[in-house]
Amino acid sequence: MSKSMSLIASVASGVALAGLVAAAPAAAKVEGDTIILGSAISLTGKYATNGIHAKNGYELAIKRVNEMGGVKIGGKSYKLKATYYDDESTPARGAQLAERLIKQDGVQYMLGPYSSGMTKAIAPVSEKYKIPMVEAEGASRSLFTQGYKYLFAVLSTSEQYLASTITLAAEWAKKNGRKPQDLKIALVFENDPFSQDVRAGVLDDMKKYGMKAVIDDKMPRDLADISATLTKVKALKVDMLIASGHSKGAATAARQIKEMKVSVPIIAMTHCEAAKVIKKFGDSTNGFLCPTQWAETMSYEDKYFGTAGDYDKLFKATYEGYKNVPYQAAQASAAVLVWKEAFEKANSLDKDKVRDAISSIEMNTFYGDIKFSPAGNNIAKPMALRQIQNGKLNVVSPAKWAVSSFQPRK
Asked: Which of 16, 42, 224, 409 could form a disulfide with 47 if both were Cys (CB 3.0 to 4.6 A apart)?
C-alpha cells in the first residue's frame, strides 16, 4: 500500500490472506519466507482516524524492513507481512478478533490495536495464549500493573502526557507575580482508561503546586458537545483549560472553543495532530499545548529510517494528506522495528524465545530509545510538549528539544 486512499483494498486483502492461511501450523506463523504479524485495529468507529494512522505506520516500517533485506534468522532471510481485522472501535469485537487471529489464523506475533481501551480488551487474550504483543497505541499505566508477561509497549505511559503543562503554568504564574495555587484550572476528560490516566497524572502534578480544579467534568459519551463545560470556563474566567478525548474529543473542543470565542491563557489537549485541529480550525488554535510522543525535530536516529526528520519526509511522501505526521504513526513503525530486532536477537521463530528477546531489547530508533521494564512499558523515552504557534507545532518542552519558548494565548 502506498496511499491511504487504498485502505479499503488493503483491509480486504488482509482478510483474504487470513482465510488462506488459517490452516498454517501454530508453532510459528510463517508462510514460506514470510513472517505474519497480526493486528485487530480500528479502521471504522470512533477510533478510526488514529487506527488508520497506526496502520500506515505499521505498513511503512514493514515495507522498509523488507527493502533492507528483511529479517535474518538462522542464515535465512524472511519478509514481514501483517494481517489486519477491523475491530470497529469496539472492545468486545477486538477481543473476538484477537482470538480469531491466534486460534483460527495461527498468528503467533501480535501488533497492538489503537487506544488503551482496545488494548485492555485484547491483552488478556494474547496473554491467555502466551502470544507476544508489541503495541504502540495503548498508553494507560493500568495496562502495566496486571502482571502481563507477553505485553510490551514502545510508547510513554499516559500519566506523563499532560503533566508537564502544570509546570509550565506554574512558571507562567510566577513570572506574572501570581502564586501557582491561585490559578483557576478547568479539566474536561473522556471517561475512558487513557484519558482518565492522563487526568490522574495532571492531578498528581497539580498537588505538587497546591493547585485545585475549579471545573472537573467528564466529556459526554459521544464527544460531540462540551459547550456546558466551556460556558462555565467563560463564566469563571479560568487561567487554564486541560482536555483529553482522543481525536473526536480534540476536534470537538477545538471547534467549540472557536465557535464560543473561549479566551483562556493556557489551553492544553491531547490528539491535536491526529484531529488535524490546525487545518480544521486555523488561527483559533494558536497557543494550544499538545503533548507528543515524538516530533520530527527531535534528535533521534536509527539505521532504518535515519533521523526523525527523515522519517517525517518519507511518511509524507508515502501517504497523502498529512501536513504533520501523527506520533501514532511513528510509534507504530517503531513497534515493527522491535519485532525485527527481536527475531534476529532470538535467532529463532519460537514465540517464547522471541518474547524473551523482546524483554531484553535496548535499542535506539528514529522514534526514541526503547527499553522495557519488567512490566512491559518503555522506560527509556520521555514525552514532549508542543505548542501551536502561527499554525505550526513547535516543541517547547523538554528544554533539550525545544525549538521555541512557551507563549500564553492572547
From this structure: 42
